[in-house]
């Protein structure tokens, strides 16, 4: 299967025909279909498929001599944000299979295994914590906390894992698997518009996190409740959204409120509670922390006159991730020079960088849009990404 054929096979899976956006949430039918596609592509290439204890999958290409350690891992994720683009995640996986095909056609002699990973729940769109599969693998989240995470229907991660045939009690750090891996290189669509060339190399991932804001008021009738008697949580929620933009501008960060849950959500009912999520990111930890603190203070200030309570909980936070300099520079050399750029997006590579030398390749995105249907990469640039990944894997797997 060529890159284009694989791409065409995946393209319709989980796509909303009306908007062009993708809805591939972990262990829901579209993502399960992507997982089945992954297993087929591995089988087609005679690549043994490993299901780790945390819901991640790895397709292996082993050297003739049976070496199993110091593997070069690549890959990305198959899940999406709600209404996401086609490239965020799948591009890294389809490119990895296509790169393996190129290396095999060219008779590459592996001295180290090459693994293609599909990490679970990278977007955190179902259970709320980004990079859940790689965080569990790396020991970056308490397994008990992970088991108790719930999706929008109240199903726990433990129940969903069990339903997928995995043992929820077995999740957690996997030093055996990590011990077999020497480095991880992830190819990803650029989520911005900095690249003037088809392929770039990542320098760092800026600090980023997500916080849950809970506003509790009093449900009541929209028509019969006097303004003075109301405890409407929507008012401080609105204050929080505006404060997020102001705090971001003040601190040179970015802050987003993209998800909110209103209970009961009736047109003619004053809400009893509002839950909203803040995504904040920026060039330095202190600036991100200041942004979140200022939004919290503003939310409490706005809540007070309405006798609404506010609770703020940190759901995940990743400090700045500086990719392994030696590996990054080796990629730049292998590519005969390539632009090096930071990213404002989080990735499994960022999580794994705490345990492994990791690096990332970016493929140019002319729209600069991501996490939306307009996300795009030209086929020529995608094929340049495959060539770049093949060259990098060849260099690293012969080392
Ligand atoms: O949210 C992110 O930055 C990543 O795309 N999961
Ligand atoms: Mn993403
Ligand atoms: Mn991604
Ligand atoms: Mn009524």
From TrEMBL:
SUPFAM superfamilies: Bacterial exopeptidase dimerisation domain (SSF55031), Zn-dependent exopeptidases (SSF53187). The keyword Membrane does not apply. Keywords: Hydrolase, Metal-binding, Zinc. Zn(2+) 1 binds at residues 77, 88, 188. Allantoate binds at residues 210, 268, 281. GO terms for molecular function: hydrolase activity, acting on carbon-nitrogen (but not peptide) bonds, in linear amidines; metal ion binding. The keyword Cell membrane does not apply. Its cofactor is Zn(2+). Gene3D superfamilies: 3.30.70.360, Zn peptidases. Belongs to the peptidase M20 family. This is Allantoate amidohydrolase. It comes from Actinomadura montaniterrae.
């Amino acid at each position: 299967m060529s890159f284009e054929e694989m791409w065409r096979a995946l393209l319709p899976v989980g796509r909303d025909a009306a908007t062009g956006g993708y809805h591939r949430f972990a262990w829901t039918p579209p993502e399960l279909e992507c997982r089945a596609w992954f297993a087929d592509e591995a089988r087609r290439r005679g690549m043994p498929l490993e299901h780790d204890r945390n819901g991640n999958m790895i397709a292996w290409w082993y050297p003739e001599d049976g070496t199993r350690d110091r593997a070069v891992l690549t890959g990305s994720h198959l899940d999406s944000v709600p209404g996401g683009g086609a490239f965020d995640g799948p591009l890294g996986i389809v490119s990895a299979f296509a790169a393996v095909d190129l290396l095999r056609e060219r008779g590459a002699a592996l001295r180290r295994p090459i693994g293609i990973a599909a990490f679970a729940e990278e977007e955190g769109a179902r259970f709320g914590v980004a990079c859940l599969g790689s965080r569990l693998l790396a020991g970056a989240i308490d397994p008990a906390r992970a088991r108790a995470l719930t999706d929008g229907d109240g199903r726990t991660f433990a129940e969903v894992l069990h339903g997928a045939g995995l043992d929820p009690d077995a999740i957690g750090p996997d030093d055996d698997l990590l011990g077999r891996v020497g480095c991880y290189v992830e190819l990803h669509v650029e989520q911005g518009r900095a690249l003037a060339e088809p392929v770039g190399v990542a320098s760092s991932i800026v600090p980023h996190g997500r916080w849950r804001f809970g506003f509790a008021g009093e449900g009541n009738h929209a028509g019969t409740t006097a303004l003075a008697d109301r405890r409407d949580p929507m008012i401080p929620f609105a204050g929080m959204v505006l404060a997020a933009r102001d705090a971001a501008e003040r601190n040179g960060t970015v802050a987003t409120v993209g998800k909110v849950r209103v209970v009961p959500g009736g047109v003619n009912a004053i809400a009893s509670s509002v839950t909203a999520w803040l995504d904040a990111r920026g060039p330095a930890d202190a600036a991100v922390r200041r942004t979140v603190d200022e939004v919290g203070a503003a939310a409490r200030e706005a809540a007070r006159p309405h006798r609404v309570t506010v609770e703020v909980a940190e759901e995940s936070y990743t400090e700045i991730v500086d990719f392994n300099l030696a590996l990054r520079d080796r990629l730049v050399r292998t590519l005969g020079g390539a632009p090096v750029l930071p990213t404002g997006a989080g990735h499994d590579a960022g999580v794994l960088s705490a345990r492994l030398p990791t690096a990332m390749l970016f493929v140019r995105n002319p729209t600069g849009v991501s996490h939306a249907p307009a996300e795009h990469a030209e086929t020529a640039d995608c094929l340049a990404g495959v060539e770049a990944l093949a060259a990098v894997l060849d260099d690293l797997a012969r080392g």
